[in-house]
Design brief:
Two copies of one chain form a homodimer. The first copy, chain A, folds into three domains: 8-96, 2-Layer Sandwich (Uridine Diphospho-n-acetylenolpyruvylglucosamine Reductase, domain 2), CATH 3.30.43.10; 97-217, Uridine Diphospho-n-acetylenolpyruvylglucosamine Reductase, domain 3; 221-411, Vanillyl-alcohol Oxidase, Chain A, domain 3 (3-Layer(aba) Sandwich). In chain A, strand 5 (101-105) and strand 6 (110-113) form a beta hairpin. By secondary structure, chain A is α+β, with helices and mostly antiparallel strands. In chain A, 36% of the residues lie in helices and 21% in strands. In chain A, the strands form four sheets. Chain A has a seven-stranded antiparallel beta sheet, with helices on both faces. The first copy, chain A, contains 15 helices and 18 strands. Chains A and B meet through strand 9, strand 11, helix 8, helix 10 and helix 14 of A and strand 9, strand 11, helix 8, helix 10 and helix 14 of B.
C-alpha cells in the first residue's frame, strides 16, 4: 500500500478532532509510542492522539481512510512481537484516556468496558462484587490490547483465553462506520461469528471501542501446590495425567530448573532447583480442594515427583505468581548488558514434553542463557533468551533458534504463537502455519480494510 | 441468484463422480431429504449423493459451482429451523457414509472425525478410553450437523457449545478448493479466527469434510439432584445463585410444571408437579460432589425450594435425561392430531426469569398447548407449541407468538437462536438482531461463495 506522510494540513485537520491535550507530535510522545517490549526496531508514528469516545475514533478513521494515513491502536505497549509498532508511521491512537468501566452487570456476570481499561484495574473494581475477569496475561495489559491479541495466561487452562471471555464488541471500521457485533446471551447460533474475527486481529480489521466481557464468580477457595520432578519429561507426564483426571486446575505452570534458580535468588523462596510444576485449584470449599490436591499429589508421585508441597499459603502463592510474572525483569537484572527475547509456541499436550526438551537443548547448544517456562496445561511453551545487547551475531543465532522452535511446533500440528500474537515477529511463519487458508485471511483483510490503513504490515 | 435446474447432462456428469449406489434421483430418497424436524415446508432436492471422501466432495462442488447448481449438506436431518431443506433444489450431499472416526488422539484429548459420525457413536467409541465429546444436543445429530449449527445442549453450561470443542477443520470451498483451518494446539493467537466463521455457518460458506474435536476426561463421578420451586421466578433465582456460587454445574435444566406432568404420565417418575430444576455435577470424587450438592441444596432452600431430591441414582438420572430429550415425542403422543414447533431464544441470565414468565403467559393467552423448558444455566429458553395439524389460523398464531418471544429476547440483548440456528425460521430476525453487522456477514458470504450455491436462501 502507498500511504501518505502526515502533512501540516493533515495535522491541522486532525488537531481539530480532539482537545489540545489529547494530540501530540512531541518527540517524547512519538518515542514512547515507537516500541513495545519486544526486540523489534522502534518506528515512530507521526502523531499520537488520545480519543475519549467512539465518535472521535470514527471521525479520525474516516479521515485517515480518505487520506491514506496509517492508523495503529495502542493499549499499554506491553506486547512481545512488535504488534503495535507503527511501522509505516501515521497516527497512533492511544486508548489510555478511554478507560471507563461503563457498566458492571453483576447479575449477568458481565461488564461493558472501554478498551483502555487495564485488566488489573477492572479486577480490583470487581473484587468487592465477588466477580473477576479471568484472562490474566501477567503484563499490565489493557482490555483492548488483550482483545487485539487474544491474550491468555496462567488461568487460561481453566477459564479460556480472552476470546472465550468476550461476548460483544463495538468496532469502528476503517471507513469510520461504527458497528455492534455479538449479543449478551452466553450462547448463540445466530449468523456468522464476526466477534471472533475481530478478537485476535491485532487492530488490523477494525478498532474495538467497547467490549462486553464475561465475568466469573471469584472462587470461594483456592489451593496451590508446587511439585518438583527429576526431569522435564516426568513433569510433562504429570501435567498430562492431572489434565486427564478431571481435577480441572486453574493454573498448571511448568518452570525449568534455571528459572527456579533465578526465583530463589531474587525472592528467597528456597525452592528445590528442579523442574517444578506450580498448580492452583479453585473451588467452593477448602475440604474439596484438599482432596483435589491429594489426588494431584498421588498422580505426581506416580510420575516420579520427589517433592510435593501442598497448600502453600496465600502470601507464598502470590510471591510465586509475581515471581513467575516478573521473570523477564529478573532475568534482565541477572544478566546485565543482555536483553530478552521471548519465544512463544503452543503444541498439542502430548507433544509438549518433546517440545520443551527440544527448546532446552537448543539453548544449551547455542551457549546463550535460555530459560524455559510454560503454561503447561495448554501446551504453551515460552523460551526466554538473554542476548547480548548490540551483539548482532548472537541475535541472529537467537532468531535461528526461534525459527527452529517454531518449525518444530508447526511440525507437531501446533501454532507459531500461543498468546503473543503475530505482530512483526511471527509474520514469516504464517504461510507455513496456515497454508491455503492464509489467502482467506488476506481476503478478509481486504474486505474490511480495503485501503490497508489499519496497523499496516502486520500479520501478513 | 439464478440457479440452473439439474438436467440429464448434469446427472450423467454427477453420476460419474461416485459409485452407483451412492447416487439417487429416486422419489423416496428425494422425499427423505426434503424436510428436517421443523414445520417448514418440504422441498425436494433434484439429486442426492453420498460422498465417502473429500476429493469427491471437492469434485462435486467444483462442478456445481461451474454449472450454478445449489448444494446443500445433510447430516441427520434433525434440525429444527429448516436448516438443511434444499429450498432451491439441486444437489443434497448426504454425509452418512462419510462417517469414519479417523483417529482418536487419546494423549491429546482429541479426535479427527468425518462429518457423518453420529456424536453418540463417537461417545460410545470413546467411553472405554475414559474420554468423551461433551456437546450433547439430544437429537441423534452428526458431528457435521453440530458444527454447521454450533449445536449445544444440556452440558453446554459447563463444557461450552460445539464451537468451543472444535479445533481444526478441513473445509471444501464452493469452488472445490480443499482448505485446512486451525491447528491442534489448545490455544493460539495466530492469524484471523477462520475456524469460528465456518462453525455455525450452516453449510453456507463451505462444507466441512473433517474436524479435529476436543475431548474431555469422563468425570470420575457425577451426582444429580431435582429441586422443585413454588414459582418459575424462584427457580430462576436459584439458577442464578448456583451459577454465581462457582459450583460449576454440568447441567442446569428448568422444566415448567406442564412438562413434569407429561413426564410423570409417560415415565411414572412420580415427580412433584411444579417448576423443577434438574442439575448435574461432575467431579473427581463422590465426597466432593456430595458437598457440592449440599451447597446447591442450601442455595435452593434460600430461594424457597420446597422439595430437593439429591443423589438420584444413575437409572433415575438416565430416565430423567431421556425424558427431557424425548419431550417433543411425548408431547406429540399426548396431543394426537397436533404437531410441535420449538421456539429457541437465549438471553443474559438476569433476564431469564422474565423471559420464561413472558413465554408462559403467551402460551396461556393463546390457548394453545405450550410447554416451557430450558437450558437455564445458559439463559437458553425453549417453548414448544403443539399446533393442530392443518389448522392454518393456529399456526399463524404460533408464528406471531414466536415473533413476540424473539422480539422480547432481542430487546433484552439476547439472541434469536440459542442453539437451533437460523435456517429458514430465523432469517426474518437477522436484521433486527445484527443491524449493520449483517452487511459484513453478507460480504463474507459473497467472498467465500460468490455464486451463492451453498445452501442458498438460508441465513439471510
Amino acid at each position: 500500500m502507498n500511504f501518505n506522510s502526515v502533512t501540516e494540513d493533515h495535522l491541522r485537520d486532525l488537531r481539530s478532532m480532539v482537545e489540545p491535550d489529547r494530540f501530540s507530535t512531541g518527540e517524547s510522545n512519538l518515542e514512547l509510542h515507537s516500541k513495545d517490549e519486544s526486540q523489534h526496531l522502534p518506528v515512530r508514528p507521526e502523531v499520537v492522539m488520545w480519543p475519549t469516545d467512539k465518535r472521535e475514533v470514527s471521525e479520525i478513521l474516516k479521515y485517515a481512510n480518505q487520506h491514506m494515513l496509517p492508523v495503529t491502536g495502542w493499549g499499554a505497549g506491553t506486547s512481545l512481537e512488535g504488534n503495535p509498532i507503527p511501522v509505516r508511521g501515521g497516527i497512533v491512537l492511544d486508548f489510555s484516556r478511554m478507560n471507563r468501566i461503563v457498566q458492571v452487570r453483576e447479575q449477568d456476570f458481565q461488564a461493558d468496558v472501554e478498551p483502555g481499561v487495564v485488566y488489573r484495574d477492572l479486577n480490583k473494581n470487581l473484587r468487592h462484587k465477588g466477580l473477576f475477569f479471568p484472562p490474566d496475561p501477567g503484563a499490565s495489559a489493557t482490555i483492548g490490547g488483550m482483545i487485539a491479541n487474544n491474550a491468555s495466561g496462567i488461568r487460561t487452562v481453566r477459564y479460556g483465553s480472552t476470546r472465550a471471555n468476550v461476548l460483544r464488541l463495538t468496532v469502528v471500521r476503517a471507513n469510520g462506520e461504527i458497528v455492534k457485533i455479538g449479543c449478551r446471551a452466553s450462547k448463540t447460533s445466530s449468523g456468522y461469528d464476526l466477534k471472533n474475527i475481530f478478537v485476535g486481529s491485532e487492530g488490523t480489521l477494525g478498532i474495538v471501542v467497547e467490549a462486553t466481557v464475561r465475568l466469573r464468580g471469584l472462587p470461594e477457595e483456592f489451593l496451590t501446590a508446587m511439585a518438583t520432578f527429576p526431569s522435564v519429561k516426568a513433569a510433562g507426564n504429570a501435567v498430562f495425567e492431572i489434565m486427564r483426571s478431571g481435577l480441572d486446575p486453574a493454573s498448571m505452570e511448568l518452570l525449568a530448573p534455571e528459572c527456579i534458580e533465578i526465583i530463589n535468588k531474587e525472592k528467597a523462596l528456597g525452592l528445590q532447583v528442579a523442574p517444578t510444576i506450580f498448580m492452583e485449584f479453585h473451588g467452593p470449599s477448602k475440604n474439596q480442594l484438599t482432596e483435589t490436591i491429594q489426588m494431584a499429589h498421588d498422580i505426581s508421585d506416580d510420575m516420579g515427583c520427589h517433592d510435593f508441597r501442598p497448600g502453600i499459603g496465600i502470601k507464598e502463592r502470590n510471591e510465586f505468581v509475581s515471581a513467575r510474572y516478573d521473570l523477564a525483569e529478573m532475568l534482565k537484572r541477572n544478566h546485565p548488558g543482555r536483553s530478552h527475547m521471548v519465544i512463544d509456541v503452543a503444541v498439542p499436550i502430548s507433544a509438549y514434553p518433546e517440545m520443551i526438551a527440544f527448546a532446552s537443548e537448543e539453548s544449551q547448544k547455542a551457549g546463550i542463557p535460555g530459560y524455559t517456562f510454560s503454561h503447561a496445561g495448554d501446551g504453551n511453551l515460552h523460551q526466554v533468551f538473554m542476548g547480548k545487547i548490540g551483539d548482532k551475531k548472537e541475535w541472529v543465532l537467537i532468531d535461528q533458534i526461534n525459527e527452529r522452535i517454531v518449525s518444530k511446533a508447526l511440525a507437531m500440528d501446533g501454532t507459531a504463537t500461543g498468546e503473543h500474537g503475530v505482530g512483526i515477529g511471527k509474520r514469516k511463519f504464517m504461510q507455513a502455519e496456515h497454508g491455503d487458508s492464509l489467502v482467506l485471511m488476506k481476503n478478509i483483510k481486504n474486505m474490511l480494510d480495503p485501503n490497508g490503513i489499519l496497523n499496516p504490515d502486520k500479520m501478513f
